[in-house]
Write a structure and sequence with these properties.
The protein is of the alpha/beta class. It has 17 helices and 13 strands.
Length: 410
């Protein structure tokens, strides 16, 4: 098998340096990098888009590796050193600005892989095209979703046009496209040339979230006390309208009026996003939610997995998703899940999750009451012993599949 040179873009990770709680897309970019560092046998270079120079530049491999390792330690709770990560990212980009690697030499074979795993600068086709011409590389891009095109009302103003430009870049410059689900593949196909191959490669389970993490391996002393009280429910995801937090907050207000001090807790894990004024008004000002809903954006992976293992259920009422990593994580640790009835969730959850219309408030409330006031917390296998979730893939395997696809279309 021919091992081609690989240019792996880490622009998103650098741009989000120091954020203690990663998004699903952050994890994806990290896992491909981790796989390449460990297993890729050919020439490997890390690159990033420089927003001032407006070009893609090769960055120092040793610096990039140190940055990646420290990022993993932060996410895993092994360090809380956020400031060094921010300065490291700035230094890496600064060195690329003034360094000698701005125009890597075109290889004699004129073949190399450029792998872009986020939407970070897909709206900059000129920069990407120049880089491809300089290196002789061909681009494989990962498209996580086309939600800004399908549902522009859930995104920042202008995001529809930006995402259209991103997809136009993929259509013109891409040699292959990776998507996380069949639902995204179906939605994306009309936007791309029929000859451009699309490969569905589901996201994997992040390696430090569950490996070796038994029920007792994370002691409760690293979990803030309010989060340990049973019963509680988890909602994981950026606080934005598409995630439908407003449904849950209205349900919790009704639960408080009905049950008072017996109301179960709702733990929301995720940073505050955009276009979410109504959600934040309820979180900040609704008296009924003051002691029953907890918002947290500082828990590391070990803490989140511990909470997933002991929650009554994961609640995932999104209006639209490209994949849904929290559902995958819940299934992997045998936790019940109640989620929206979306095709992509049925891909991930099979018959192991409970599916409800994201607008069915009474249905969601009834399901939550049933789980909250059961005598004891039950695992997924106890609640639905015949449930058949799809297999949970591990990241090294999925990253290998993605890079192998990029090699075949190069």
């Amino acid at each position: 098998m021919t091992t081609l040179p690989l240019y792996l873009d880490i622009s998103r990770l650098l741009s989000r340096a120091g954020l203690a709680v990663p998004t699903g897309i952050d994890r994806v970019e990290y896992e491909y990098v981790a796989y390449a560092l460990r297993y890729w046998q050919g020439p490997l270079e890390f690159v990033a888009y420089h927003p001032v120079r407006r070009e893609i530049r090769v960055i120092d491999k040793m610096d990039a590796t140190a940055f990646i390792n420290l990022t993993a330690s932060l996410w895993n709770g092994e360090t809380t050193r956020i400031t060094p990560l921010k300065w490291m990212a700035r230094r890496i980009l600064g060195a690329a600005t003034f360094g000698q690697k701005s125009a890597p030499a075109k290889l004699p074979t004129r073949r190399a892989i450029y792998l872009l795993l986020s939407h970070h600068h897909l709206q900059q086709p000129d920069a990407i095209e120049r880089f491809l011409q300089q290196t002789g590389a061909r681009m494989t891009a990962m498209v996580h979703d086309i939600i800004p095109i399908e549902y522009p009302e859930y995104n920042r103003p202008g995001e529809y046009d930006r995402h259209c430009r991103r997809m136009a870049t993929v259509a013109r410059l891409g040699s292959g496209v990776i998507v996380p689900s069949e639902a995204v593949a179906v939605a994306l196909r009309p936007l791309l040339p029929a000859s451009l191959p699309i490969r569905v490669i589901a996201h994997g389970m992040h390696i430090w979230g569950t490996a070796g993490n038994t029920a007792n391996s994370v002691t409760t002393d690293i979990i803030p006390a309010p989060y340990q009280e049973d019963p509680y429910f988890l909602c994981i995801g950026t606080i934005e309208p598409r995630k439908n937090h407003l449904l849950l907050l209205n349900i919790w207000r009704n639960l408080f009026h009905k049950y008072g001090a017996r109301t179960p807790r709702l733990v929301i894990i995720g940073r505050r996003g955009w276009e979410n004024e109504n959600i934040l008004d309820m979180l900040d000002r609704c008296p009924a939610l003051k002691d029953t809903v907890m918002e947290c954006n500082t828990l590391d992976d070990r803490q989140v997995v511990h909470l997933l293992r002991h929650t009554r259920a994961l609640l995932f009422p999104s209006f639209s998703e490209g994949f849904g990593l929290p559902l995958l994580e819940a299934l992997a640790v045998d936790t019940p899940s109640v989620c929206s009835d979306l095709p992509v969730f049925r891909e991930v959850g099979g018959t192991a999750a409970e599916y409800l219309d994201p607008l069915d408030g009474p249905g969601w409330m009834a399901s939550i009451e049933k789980l909250a006031f059961a005598p004891v917390r039950q695992s997924l296998s106890e609640l639905t012993p015949t449930a058949m979730p799809p297999p949970v893939h591990e990241w090294p395997q999925q990253a290998e599949r993605g890079i192998d696809f990029a090699r075949t279309v190069c």
